[in-house]
Amino acid sequence: MNQSADLSLEQQFSIRSFETQVEKMSREQAQDFLVKLYEQMIVRENMYKQFLKHQWGLEPGPQAL
């Protein structure tokens, strides 16, 4: 699969810029960053799950006041 075909030019540039920043990190900085990134991925996944449950009517949403 050619990932660059699925990404916009702006996204490809952003990835290249990020790569440059990561190359400048120490090992400890990179490890800390990866842990925080993983935590954010889990939080995002939980948000998607909650959103889908609400959209599909599987769970009541917040009550309007």
Description of the structure:
This protein is mostly helical. It is built from 3 helices and no strands. It has helices at residues 3-6, 9-23, 27-55. The termini are far apart. The mean pLDDT is 89.
Descriptive keywords:
65 residues, mainly alpha, 3 helices
C-alpha termini separation? 49 Å
Oligomeric state, counting identical vs distinct chains: single chain
Biggest sheet character: none
Summing up helix and strand content along with how strands pair, one would put the structural category as mainly alpha
Low-confidence stretches: none
In sequence order, what are the helices and strands, one letter per element? HHH
**What's the alpha carbon Rg, rounded to whole Å?**
18 Å
* Average residue pLDDT: 89
Instruction: Report the strand count.
Output: 0
Helix segment tally: 3
